């Protein structure tokens, strides 16, 4: 199946936002002191990792490789850039605010993606991932509100 540039760039953008999430959540999980957040952030890092795999599998089926130039080792996206400072403050509410801010970018990317005319299996996968990202965002927000 042939893949057009718009579909490719949409999927690539989602992969990048998921990579941001993996990096952000891994960083947060390593440095946060609250065990409940440590476990939650690890869970979300793993979730994003498997979302990346799903999206890359879809690209492979369409005969495309994901451009790995901005790999997991890359720099943190600006959405997650303040997570280090928040973590060093040990302030639970601030840490959750930074995670929520990182998630805002992912939610926005998925909101745009689900509006597009995605082919075949890609559409339901992206829709499911959008729900997962939105649920994570809302969960982080409710934890922040109660911090």
Explain the layout of strands and helices.
Layout: H1 5-31, H2 35-61, H3 83-89, H4 92-115, H5 122-145
Helix pairs in contact: 1-2, 1-3, 1-4, 2-5, 3-4, 4-5
Task: Write a short abstract of this structure.
Residues 9-116 form the DUF2383 domain. The protein has 147 residues and is mainly alpha-helical. It has 5 helices and no strands.
Overall morphology: elongated
Number of strands: 0
SSE class: mainly alpha
Output the CATH topology: Ferritin
Number of domains: 1
Uncertain segments are 70-74
CATH architecture annotation: Up-down Bundle
Please describe what this structure looks like.
InterPro entries: CHP02284 (IPR011971), DUF2383 (IPR019052), Ferritin-like (IPR012347), Ferritin-like_SF (IPR009078), UCP029477 (IPR016920). By secondary structure, the chain is mainly α. The protein has one domain: Ferritin, core subunit, four-helix bundle (Ferritin, Up-down Bundle). It has helices at 5-31, 35-61, 83-89, 92-115, 122-145. The longest helix is centred in the N-terminal third of the chain and has 27 residues, at 5-31.
């Amino acid at each position: 199946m042939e893949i057009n540039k718009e579909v490719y760039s949409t999927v690539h953008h989602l992969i990048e936002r998921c990579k941001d999430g993996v990096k952000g959540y891994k960083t947060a999980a390593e440095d946060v002191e609250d065990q409940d957040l440590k476990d939650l952030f690890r869970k979300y890092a793993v979730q994003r990792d498997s979302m990346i795999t799903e999206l890359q599998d879809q690209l492979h089926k369409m005969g495309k490789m994901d451009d790995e130039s901005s790999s997991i080792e890359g720099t943190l996206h600006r959405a997650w850039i303040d997570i280090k400072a928040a973590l060093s403050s040990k302030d639970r509410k601030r840490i959750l605010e930074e995670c929520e801010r990182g998630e805002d970018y992912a939610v926005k990317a998925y909101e745009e993606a689900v509006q597009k005319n995605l082919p075949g299996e890609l559409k339901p996968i992206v829709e499911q991932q959008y729900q997962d990202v939105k649920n994570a965002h809302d969960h982080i927000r409710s934890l922040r509100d109660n911090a």
